[in-house]
Amino acid sequence: MREPLIFSINYTAYSKVMVTSEWLIRISNYNVLFAQISDSRFFVVNSNDHPYLSNEMNGIQLIDIRVESISGVFKPFFIRVNSQEMLDNLRDTLGRPIEISESLTLAQPLHDRFVVEFVKLVKSNPKYKCENKESLDPCLGCSSTTSEVKINKTCVDSLILAADEGERRCQSCSCRPMWCARCMGRIFASKQNQQTPEIWMAGRAPCPTCRATFCALDVCFLE
Asked: How far apart are CA 166 and CA 107, in angstroms?
């Protein structure tokens, strides 16, 4: 019975990595390599940042992974992912650890660094009193964390706003809590000018559901 494909990495039209529930398959122009996941160990052996290999502001991070057989039935081979997020997705799909040498440091992507600072700021904001916290659903973004923040206007609008800023004053959101702080940070970052990350934290963004305008000072943890 043919196993369904659950993860893939495309390098070129004829070169790719495919993962099923039991196998990791490396296809190239010259050969096809099979690794049974239950008989494999995975090691990150190299990482290089290449800011000019992508149209995205962050560029890409090339991460090389060595695949070894525990029983020795196949020779080691290498696969490559182009971001830490893809590495995390691959790890989750394999259901096995991917070991990283202590001497090797993986650079944290710009958006991830922003999210860390965003969450720090949100922790210093006033809390939002939430009734029936136990009935909250998982975060709509990641589904792995219970919804934990609410958009509630706590900032003070500037006394001087440009004419085109009038409709962008921050507002309280009427939606129930549906996001975790990290996913809210990712949403906020995605709505900013990607060419000016140094001022993202001072920006505004629309609520993903009701479109109410908010800033980082309006994101409140629940209590």
From this structure: 39
Look-up of token digits 């109410």 = 212
**Residue 41 tokens, joined:** 């160990």
Contact 24, 35 (CB under 8 A): yes
Unique residue bearing structure tokens 């906020």: 188
The strand ranges marked E within the chain are 7-12, 15-19, 23-27, 32-36, 40-50, 60-69, 77-81, 98-100, 149-151, 204-206, 213-215, 219-221
Question: Under DSSP, is residue 67 helix (H, G, I), strand (E, B) or coil?
Answer: strand
Encode pLDDT of 42-86 as tens digits.
Answer: 999 988 866 544 444 445 678 899 999 999 999 999 999 987 778
The structure's pTM equals 0.56
Question: In Å, how far from its chain's centre is CA 187?
Answer: 10
- Residue 158 has what pLDDT? 55
Q: What is the pLDDT of residue 47?
A: 85
Helix (H) or strand (E) holding 186: helix 181-190
Distance CA 194, CA 189 (A): 8
75-to-33, 40, 48 alpha-carbon distances in Å: 9, 11, 25
How confident is the model over 84-92, as a mean pLDDT?
84
Among the listed residues 42, 60, 40, the one whose alpha carbon sits nearest the alpha carbon of residue 52:
60
For the four alpha carbons of 119, 53, 48 and 18, in that order, the dihedral sign comes to: positive
Q: Which residue has the tokens 């589904």?
A: 143
Dihedral sign from CA coordinates of 208, 212, 214, 218? negative
What pLDDT score was predicted for residue 55? 45
